Amino acid sequence: MTGDSETRSDPKVLIIDDEPNFASALRIALEAKSYQVTIVSHRREAEERINTEEPDAIVLGTMSPRGEAFSLYRWLREIPELRELPVLVIDCPVEKHLIKGWRTDERLMLGSEDYLERPVEPKLLVRRIEKLLDRKTKRIRVLVADDHKIVREGIIALLALESEMQVVGEAANGREAVEKALSVSPDVILMDIVMPAMSGLEATTEIRTKCPQVKVLIVSQYDDKQNMLVASQAGAYGFISKRAAASKLVAGIRSVYSGRHFEEDFV
Questions:
Q1: Do both 143 and 97 map to the same domain?
Q2: Can you list the residues of the chain whose pLDDT is less than 50?
Q3: Considering 136, 171, 198, which residue would you say is the last residue of a domain?
């Protein structure tokens, strides 16, 4: 069974922001994905909610006076129990930085994956928050691309036994794999070679350009040296024969997720 945040047990998100239109729009997008959402606009109330509600993630926007949001962020990182709490910083537009935004020195203390500037679509923020939560729980987001439904179902059933992995989507051809890579932000794509509309190798090349952070692991019945070489040239991180998938698939996913090429015979 595939799933995104709906497979979670209603995770809690605390939105801290003094712009009600932005906060309300994000709340609607999150609640549509079954998140429990609380909105506050002042630091003192934010600290109380963090202590009493124990949110799973925080969206930290802007507060008055300037510097208050960064002060709260520093407070979170100084408390051992809260240090690993995922925080997504949403700054005001660049033209407002001098009035209420995060200062340059403050932004430099943040991880690039955890900082965004407005304007940004709330639906895009939902996917960003999902990735932050996955990172916290160390779950690897996997997309399965194969034109045979029975193969996809078999892989999904196998990965369902792995607590640190989550299948976030399926694709029945290469073109759909590219589209899903952009829409669901997987960490690893299990890619067949021969598929309609667009081959797995063509899709891998396009994904490498459009989503360089996504790792592709080729899973194919065509396991000759030539296909392994072409897959490597296309940008794949590994190659597994479907005959060996049951025994090597999980190890392969872990390996390419960590940025290591997988399979002894992979060129």
A1: no
A2: 1-8, 112, 264-267
A3: 136
